[in-house]
Specification:
Blueprint: H1 9-20, H2 23-27, H3 29-35, H4 39-67, H5 71-78, H6 87-119, H7 121-125, H8 133-146, H9 149-167, H10 172-198, H11 203-211, H12 215-221, H13 223-236, H14 246-249, H15 258-286, H16 295-308, H17 312-346, H18 350-364, H19 366-370, H20 386-411, H21 418-425, H22 438-457
Helix pairs in contact: 1-10, 1-15, 1-17, 4-5, 4-13, 4-15, 4-20, 5-6, 6-9, 6-17, 6-20, 8-16, 9-17, 9-18, 10-15, 10-17, 11-15, 12-13, 16-17, 17-18, 20-22
Length: 460
Amino acid sequence: MEREKFKSRIGFILVSAGCAIGIGNVWKFPYITGAYGGGVFVLFYLLFLVIMGAPVLTMELAVGRASQKSAVLGYKALEKKGTFWHIHGWFAIAGCMLLMMYYTTVSGWMFSYFVKFLRGTFSAALPTASSAGDAADAAAVFSAMLANPVEMGMFMAITVVAGFAICSFSLQKGLERITKILMTGLLILILLLAVHSMTLPGTRRGISFYLLPDMQRARDIGIGRVITAAMNQAFFTLSLGVAAMEIFGSCMSKEKTLAGEAFWICGLDTFVALCSGLIIFPACFSFGVEPDAGPSLIFITLPKVFASMSGGRIWGTLFFLFMTFASFSTVIAVFENLITCGIDNFGWSRKKSAALHCAFILVASIPCVLGYNIWSGVHLIGARDILDSEDFIVSNLLLPLGSLIYLLFCTTKWGWGFDNYCAEANTGAGIRLSPKLKWYFSIVLPLLILVILAEGLLPR
C-alpha cells in the first residue's frame, strides 16, 4: 500500500506543531518561566531547545522519512540484520496508548469548561471577585466536576469518539484538514487573548515578572535548578520518544531538510507557550491573583480572573476554546499514530484500525475518570493517583528512554548509523547539519538525556 502523504508542507508543520503544542504549554511553561527568573529561564530554554530538543526531533523525523513506516516497521526497515531496535517500537506504541488513557480525560476537562463558560456557570458561581470566597467557589466547581464520573466520562468519550472519527478518513481529508482549522483558530484565539491582556492595568508588572531577566530570583532558586528546569521543559515540550513525531516524518516530502522543518515546529510550539504567559500574567497581576501552575491555574485561578473582568464570560469562553483546540490537536495527532501502526503492523483498513483503537481507548481511559471519585483511594506509584501514575510512566520513563534509544539508533554503528541519519536529515533545501556534530550527538547529547532521566526518577 502506497504511503499517504501530506497535501502541503504547511499541513505537515501544523500537524507536527499541533502534536507538540498541548496543555503543558499553558499550565506549566508560563509558571516556571516566572518562578525561575523570567527572561533568564527563557534564554536557557531556547538554548536547550536548539541544542537538545530539535536534534532529537530531527532523528525521529529521519527514521520516519527514510523508512516510510511507523514505529515498529520503521526500525525494522533501517536496523542491521540480527538487531532488535524494533522492540522499542512496541514500547513507543504502548506509550502513546498510555498517554491517551489520561490525556483524553484532561482534554475533556477543557471542553467541559468551555461549555461551562458558554452557559454562564461561572457568572452565577462567581458574581464578583471581591471576596476570598470566590477562589473557594471556583475550586468547588472544579471539585464537583471531578466528583462526577458521568460528566467526566461523557466529555472524555466525546473527545475520543470525535478524534477517531476525524482520523478514520484519509490523512489529508481527516487529520491534516481538521488540524489546519484547529491550529488557525488556536493562533487567532491566542493572539486575541494576548492583545486583550495587554489592555489590562497590570500588564507592566505581569510582563516584568514573566519575561524580564531577574538574576536575583534565579540565584535565590539556584542557577543549577533553573538550568535543569529549562532543560526539562525544552525536552518534554516536543513529546519525543514515543514515535508521535516519527509517523509524520513517514508522511512528509523530501523537499526540505529536517533541521529546517524542526525549526518551524519548535518555533510554533515556543510561540504558543510564550503567548500563554502573556495572557495569564497580566490578567493575574491586574486582579491581585497569585499565579500558580497545573490544574489549579487553569481550573481555579483563571476562572476567578475571568469572573473579575468586564466581559469575563466571553473571554473565559474564548480561552477554554483555545485550550480545547490545543489539547485536541495533540489527541488527534497521537490517534493518527495509533491508527497507522494498526494499518502497518496488522494490515487493518484505516476504518477498522480507528474503530478498534477507539474501543480500546474508551475502555482504558475509564480508570483515569474514576480515579478522582469512585477509585480516589487508588494510588499506583507511591502517593500518586491514577492519572499522575500514568503520567509519571510516560513523562519520566518512556519519553526520555525512548528519546535515548532513537538517539543511539541514529548515531551508533550498531544502529542505523550517524552517516545515514545525517544524509537523510540533510536531504532537501534548508538548514543542514554538519558532520562535525557527530561527537556532540554521540557523547554530549546522550549525557544530557541521562540527566533528564535521572532528575525525573529522583525522589522530590
